[in-house]
Amino acid sequence: MPNKEKCLESIHIHTGESLKRDLQDLAMQQDRTVGELIRVVLEQYAYGATAKLRPFNPIDQAH
Question: Where are the domains positioned within the chain?
């Protein structure tokens, strides 16, 4: 599974200031680094790992 790999590769991207700030805010809210947040979003897109992005909610577990 991809998330068990060591994260040794890097990708450089250019963003606007607003997107960078918003990503920093989202990462801080989720207690993640920006790199980890972006990696999770990319894994979600590439592998359908939607559960990794959502915080655990016991109410959802009951349904």
Answer: 15-58
